[in-house]
Amino acid sequence: MEAILDIRGIRKNYEDLVVLDHLDMQVKSGEVVVIVGPSGCGKSTLLRCINALERIDDGEVVLDGKVINPQDKQLSKVREKIGMVFQSYELFPHKTVLQNLVLAPVIVKKMDRKEAEKEALRLLERVGLLSKQNNYPRQLSGGQKQRVAIVRALMMNPEILLLDEITAALDPEMVREVLEVVLDLAKEGRTMIIVTHELSFAKAVADRVVFIDGGRIIEEGEPGDFFEHPKTERLKKFLHSFAYE
Amino acid sequence: MGFEVLLKGNNLARLLGGLGVALKISLLSVCISLILGTVLGSLMNDRHPLIKGVLRGYLEIVRIMPQLVLLFLAYFGTTRVLGINISAQTASILVFSFWGTAEMSDLVRGALSGIPPIQYESSMALGFSDFQTLVHIIIPQIVRRMIPLSINLITRMIKTTSLIMMIGIVEVLKVGQQIIEANRKSDPNAAFGIYFTVFILYFAVCWPISKLSRYLEKKWEA
Asked: Which of A25, A107, A215, B182 sits CB 3.0–4.6 Å from A7 for a disulfide?
């Protein structure tokens, strides 16, 4: 199957620090790719480069056969196709849950407001938050906010969804409610790139796991092999750092 | 108690007229401060050290200088040295705008820097253009943060107009003094009645405004 996202040799520096070092990666339609790696390895930067929130110093990102160009006036058109969910939720604090959800479809996609609200309510029900539609973000728990943020990204019906450590800021008891939503999306066949530290979740959701260190892909594979039979020393060491004996 | 004086001649109407003068000056200054303050405030986070330095310096000067000194400087000081002869009203509008713009720009700066950069990013990631992000995401948040604070500034300005009688403007307090002087013999208690009335007038103007500010703050608390 054809790759819908093609990352070709991207390089990203902060001054002298190389964050991404000529990294290549392809994602096929319907594929769930989980990226793991030590902090500071460049995995979040990679996601931010994909939708041009960061400028890249070399290489290119191709979505649907089209190069994403940060200078492009039509950049926002491309970003519509890429959903992104952040660690810190970033709901709009001055809008209710429902308003948060319909704002982008109505303003950016010129969708009919009634239509957008119908879709929003359908998705809210799916993530179990229908009763919160008129609440403000400050009235929600972290887990609820993150579920709303996921729905907000879905409202644009993106071709690919980028999840950037979406459970890292949550209390442990709220992690599951968010990850279950993601598992559900994976079953539905959504194309996703997920950066996470939840290895057991990675195992459950991924079609392919990618280990990044020092801005390069060190090892990748389907989750069974990846976690049970790591080939490289660096991955072995990384996985070992999560184990308690 | 000295309230009878109010009903003599057109004394009450004169007091209200004086209040009108005070309100006119503060309202004009507030409008000017809002516009200029917003412009300067958005420049205050500028990366250019010179722009930043000049604006910081301006803010510090305004904070340190008593408004009365500024008024004297603008009205009496400029006449001979610079050879400009501005009316007392113009001088006070200038001084109040000079003061208000500085305070306002600091409020705008604070509100702007209080919005985390990732709010812009999450908006852009949804496909909003820069302009749409500003209009739908950033400005509404800034306005909500700023309105309660700027209303505070408005009440402070109205109160401070009591100083402009010092450069000869006949505003509410000055009218009050004139009435008291004129009735010294017939109504020796007028001082209490008149000043109390002036107090009530200031209160009647400022209290609803400050009430509104508290209401909005509650409504928009983030």
From this structure: A25
Residue of chain A nearest B219, judged by CA positions: A94
Provide the residue count of chain A: 245
Residues of A in Cβ contact (< 8 Å) with B116: 88, 90
Q: Residues near A148 by Cβ (< 8 Å), separated by ≥ 6?
A: A89, A91, A97, A100, A101, A124, A127, A129, A132, A137, A140
Rounded CA separation A148/A129 (Å)? 8
Nearest CA in chain A to B116: A90
| CA nearest to B126, candidates A112, A26, A157 | A157
Q: Which domains does chain B have, with CATH numbers?
A: 3-221 (1.10.3720.10)
Q: Which residue of B has its CA nearest to A105?
A: B126
Distance from CA of A98 to the nearest CA of B (A): 15
Q: Which of A174, A143, A151 is CA-nearest to residue A105?
A: A151
With tokens 């530290």, the residue in question is A197
pLDDT digits over A189-238, tens only?
Answer: 999 999 999 999 999 999 999 999 999 999 999 999 999 999 999 999 99
Residues paired with residue A13 on neighbouring β-strands, in sequence order:
A18
C-alpha distances in angstroms, A170 versus A86, A93, A147, A163?
12, 18, 12, 14
Is A49 within 8 Å of A127 (Cβ atoms)?
A: no
Does the model's ipTM exceed the 0.90 cut? Answer: no
pTM of the complete model beyond 0.95: no
CB burial of residue A74 (10 Å; 0-12, 13-18, 19+): exposed
